[in-house]
Write a structure and sequence with these properties.
By secondary structure, the protein is α/β, with parallel strands linked by helices. It is 40% helix and 22% strand. Helix 5 links the parallel strand 5 and strand 6. The protein binds S-adenosylmethionine and iron/sulfur cluster. The site of S-adenosylmethionine has 17 residues, from strand 4, strand 6 and strand 7.
Length: 458
């Protein structure tokens, strides 16, 4: 695949990111612990039956100034221990309401930096999960690690505890960029660490890069991608950095350095796509890449990709997500529930009530249909209207009324050969997948309404 910046320039209109539908901004505080409990019970009768677990560890030894994650500087051992105990209590409380026949197929640890806490705490949380739930033998157990603190002995521990996937945040290979974002370099050579992880049987090894950081140039980012090609990870994620210092104050500390322009950022993305695909990687979504023999690339070919707040995964392993820890978002068939963000308030809530829901959202049947349609387009670029309507027990006419889809909304995409539409089936072409959010909006009734309101005000 060789693309140019013009595709992105033409479709550069503000559209939702569709990390979830409805977006997290729709979650509200009227959703309580009791609502969550009721939704967990309902989730036992919903699809998928699989259980996905998310564990959030907010602590980081040092705070990178660009970071947009929910983090806290590492605390005293006592506090960390109290947090770990709270997570274990939340797991035990939640498990009381989950059908024991259901299997855990996915566990994702994110943060913060999960590997900044003592490995034995990680072992305690994993033991609690194993004592409360049954695991499928193919379960994917993954951790996002900071390479600044990851030791070979940690890898041994993670392997013994059942982990089989690791992702490492690189962000940039250049020391001056790492200094500008207040980040430590990897403790060990990334290539040696990847080789060690592989020798222990870890798969789906992922590295993260971020484009748009201070001191980066188009040329320096090309060097990052060349370095990735040399390292040959199974997967690469290239995240776009958004500078929003009025929302995230630490980001203003980087303003003494020059940032790449929007045009340069776009060139970085386009270069990544062109170079990665020329070197045997498949594009997953817009800015993730996987080797052709990686399960994500295979799932892409078989239209079996799925995405949740933890990133891309496959329909085989994905489940309804039950999140544990501060700020964790549970994603059930019928509802979203997000925990309190501040880790100390989270601990207090769990210690007194066993749950720590801050806000959430219950989806009605129409929203479930819209969410499914948007997910199918976003992940697999394919939406069969008849099949989707049948799956949700409605007619194609109802499906059209609910999504407010009208073929006139995709005129431009059809003319540009970014989508094909026949026999009530919409297929997104490989180039179209790079601007897939612009396709997904055609099935978002809220967006078309807003768009109309927006046009009216002009
Ligand atoms: C929880 S961190 C990964 C684990 C570990 N804490 C680390 O930094 O290596 C999640 C990833 O989100 C991405 N990320 C964080 N803040 C971001 C931002 N403001 N813009 C774009 N990507 C960001 C980074 O690529 C980072 O590796
Ligand atoms: S990028 Fe990772 S290590 Fe840095 S502050 Fe964010 S979560 Fe912590």
């Amino acid at each position: 695949m060789q693309i140019s910046t013009s595709l992105f320039q033409k479709y550069n209109i503000p559209v939702p990111r569709y990390t979830s539908y409805p977006p997290a901004t729709a979650f509200h505080g009227r959703f309580t612990n009791a609502d969550y409990r009721e939704q967990i019970l309902k989730s036992n009768d919903a699809e998928p039956q699989n259980i996905s677990v998310y564990i959030h560890i907010p602590f980081c030894t040092q705070r990178c100034h660009f970071c947009g994650c929910n983090t806290a500087l590492s605390q005293s051992e006592d506090r960390i221990k109290r947090y770990v105990n709270a997570v274990i209590k939340e797991i035990r409380t939640t498990a009381q309401y989950i059908d024991k026949k259901r299997l855990v197929t996915q566990v994702s640890w994110g943060g913060g930096t999960p590997n900044s806490i003592r490995m034995e705490y990680i072992g305690e949380i994993m033991s609690a999960l194993r004592s409360e739930f049954s695991f499928a033998d193919f379960a994917e157990i993954a951790m996002e690690c900071s390479p600044a603190y990851l030791d070979f002995s940690d890898v041994d521990y993670l392997h013994e505890t059942g982990f089989n996937r690791v992702s490492m945040g690189i962000q940039d290979f250049h020391h001056e960029v790492l200094n500008a974002i207040n980040r430590r370099a990897p403790k060990h050579e990334v290539g040696e660490m990847l080789a060690y992880l592989k020798s222990k049987g870890f798969r789906g090894l992922n590295l993260d890069l971020v484009y748009g950081l201070p001191l980066q140039t188009v040329e320096s980012f090309r060097e990052n991608i060349q370095q990735i090609i040399a390292l040959q990870p199974d997967r690469l994620a290239t995240f776009s950095y958004a500078h929003i210092p009025w929302f995230n104050k630490a980001q203003s500390l980087m303003e003494k350095h020059p940032f790449p322009s929007p045009e340069e950022k776009l060139q970085m993305l386009v270069d990544s796509i062109n170079t990665m695909t020329a070197n045997g990687y498949e594009v997953i979504g817009m800015d993730h890449f996987a080797k052709k023999d990686d399960e994500l690339a295979i799932a892409k070919v078989n239209k079996q990709l799925h995405r949740n707040f933890q990133g891309y995964n496959t329909l085989k392993t994905t489940g309804q997500v039950y999140a544990f820890g501060a700020s964790g978002i549970s994603q059930l068939n019928g509802a979203f529930a997000q925990n309190i963000k501040a880790y100390d308030k989270y601990i207090q809530a769990i210690e007194s009530d066993g749950f720590a829901v801050d806000r959430g959202y219950i989806l009605n049947n129409k929203e479930i249909i819209v969410r499914d349609s948007i997910n199918q387009i976003m992940c697999n670029g394919l939406l069969d209207f008849e099949q989707t309507a049948a799956k949700h027990g409605c007619s194609v006419d109802d499906f059209l009324k609910i999504t407010k889809f009208n073929v006139s909304h995709i005129d431009q995409l059809l003319n540009d050969k970014l989508v094909e539409f026949k026999n009530n089936t919409l297929t997104v072409t490989p180039e179209g997948m790079l601007i897939v959010r612009n396709v997904a909006v055609a099935f978002d009734p809220a967006f078309t309404l807003k768009e109309r309101q927006y046009s009216n005000t002009l």
